[in-house]
Amino acid sequence: xxxxxxxxxxxxxxxxxxxxxxxxxxxxxxxxxxxxxxxxxxxxxxxxxxxxxxxxxxxxxxxxxxxxxxxxxxxxxxxxxxxxxxxxxxxxxxxxxxxxxxxxxxxxxxxxxxxxxxxxxxxxxxxxxxxxxxxxxxxxxxxxxxxxxxxxxxxxxxxxxxxxxxxxxxxxxxxxxxxxxxxxxxxxxxxxxxxxxxxxxxxxxxxxxxxxxxxxxxxxxxxxxxxxxxxxxxxxxxxxxxxxxxxxxxxxxxxxxxxxxxxxxxxxxxxxxxxxxxxxxxxxxxxxxxxxxxxxxxxxxxxxxxxxxxxxxxxxxxxxxxxxxxxxxxxxxxxxxxxxxxxxxxxxxxxxxxxxxxxxxxxxxxxxxxxxxxxxxxxxxxxxxxxxxxxxxxxxxxxxxxxxxxxxxxxxxxxxxxxxxxxxxxxxxxxxxxxxxxxxxxxxxxxxxxxxxxxxxxxx
Length: 460
Ligand SMILES: *Cc1c(COP(=O)(O)O)cnc(C)c1O
Hints:
It is a single chain. The chain is α/β, with parallel strands linked by helices. 39% of the residues lie in helices and 12% in strands. A 5-stranded mixed sheet has the order 2-8-7-6-5, sandwiched between helices. A 3-stranded antiparallel sheet has the order 9-12-11. A two-stranded parallel ribbon has the order 1-10. The radius of gyration is 21 Å and the shape is globular. Pyridoxal-5'-phosphate (PLP) binds at residues 55, 102-104, 127, 129-130, 184, 188, 217, 219, 257, 259-260, 268.
């Protein structure tokens, strides 16, 4: 980039377009009520800007589409697998690379292979599917974020860090009960906040001392590498791929949703060094995903991924991506909308507890705000709060640490004017925030309830 010009432009041209359908406010009121006030149950064509997730929603490059044409669909030993394996091994340095159809399949296979009831898995913050897959084995998913990670308004460079003291204490107090420890990069449920390389190295030392393997939930490894380059001392001159390799050098294994920094619409992997675990995992894989050289993916998916992992590490791309999120964060902050500071790697997180103090936590302020954003501007975000995390394994309710609305940016999909529109809508909702009402459950399923729950407005 020419240092004379400060506008960070989208580092791509658009070759194929997807029309957006516009709806009126009146239409959206009807559609949201019909969806039980659950944005997950809306039809995508009824959404104007869809920030529900950055998972599998990105636009692929012409190189990925070209790669798909050479997809080898052989059942076993396809060329595409070897290209996929080479890319993952080149970046992670891990020995055994097992493709899966998405991240949670890697989680289920890993935890199903190595956990037993009563085991404990510490993590900076478990993602919802990670937690659910650990609990499905009767094990305990323990969140150990650093204290600053729980304070939305506090600005700190690495709020995604794991609490090293708490990790050391957990391992010391539970010998034989922690088959593995995890670190999620970036910390999705904790505001998309990055984890410092020093923190990953610190965790590795502690795990080594106790003979516990360390796994990375590495869905956003490229974004995390970018933050390390920008914010960690001594890292500015390294390239994102060098930093990624340094992070993975601390790990004995990794689970990946390649729908994130794989820049593809589907895919994932489990990568690990341990021979015995690999054998069990491959046997589990064959039961539900497929043969170990395709793991539930088509050959062409493996090709798109082999290209995508490297595109995610491109500096012009990372600069544009992180900047567009930061830019929305600045618009909101200037207008006094409370958000998790600083903005994270893949999303802006609005602090609904601070924005809507008149809605008590048991009436789900973040869920209510997500509904208001849809009604006013056709924006779809997702609650990361007490609907997602409030239900405990014993069936009781406990409020989540934070009540956030996550606005996750699909990769290479929206442009500056879309982001300007987002800012306008959110500021409009903020001005009339006192009129937003809370919600209560009309139907609450037991597992991962946010996906299918139905609600009704309080006082209706
Ligand atoms: C998305 C995600 C997962 C699960 O991956 P899927 O591909 O959705 O199954 C796990 N961990 C984190 C941190 C994620 O963001």
